[in-house]
Amino acid sequence: MNRRKSRELAMKLLFQMTVNKEDYKEVIKNLHDNIEQDVRDEEDIDLKDIDMEYITRVLKGVEENREIIDGEIEKHLLNWKLSRLAKIDLTIMRVCTYEMLFEVDIPNSASLNEALELAKKYSDEKSVPFINGVLDKIIKSR
């Protein structure tokens, strides 16, 4: 299993949940349905690379602890409100903050580095130092 690929998929699914206002159970069910369809269509999907337990934990954990996670992020924003953040940036920070608060076996530095890699890939270049600053403040405050 590949944690990086799993984290990236968790981030994409969490973004989908945010945009479509879906709950994690619905998103996981749709993912399973799509994977089954892709397998029937003989597309190359390597399910060994995906840690579904981790993905489910992240989606469920963020959904159930959103107030705590968002409160932690908002505490470390300077002159910003959550509502002003790009949805993708907020989603990346939610995944990382969830890991820092609730996944004790993942080092904070690993969560931060992975969040920055996701930001480089999915956000604009100005977001990377912004996300780094917010998440670094969260780490230092703990």
Give a description of the structure.
With 142 residues, the chain is mainly alpha-helical. The protein has a single domain, classed as N-utilizing Substance Protein B Homolog, Chain A. Helix content is 73%, strand content 0%. The longest helix has 18 residues.
Biggest sheet, open or closed, and with what strands and sense?
A: none
Question: What is the domain total for the residues?
Answer: 1
Provide mean pLDDT, rounded.
89
Number of strands: 0
Task: Give the low-confidence spans.
Answer: 39-45
CATH-assigned homologous superfamily: NusB-like
N-to-C CA distance:
29 Å
Short structural summary:
The protein is mostly helical and 142 residues long. The chain is 73% helix and 0% strand.
Blueprint (SSEs and pairs):
Layout lengths: L2 H18 L3 H17 L11 H13 L1 H10 L11 H16 L5 H15 L4 H15 L1
Structural descriptors:
142 residues, 73% helix, N-utilizing Substance Protein B Homolog, Chain A, 7 helices, mainly alpha
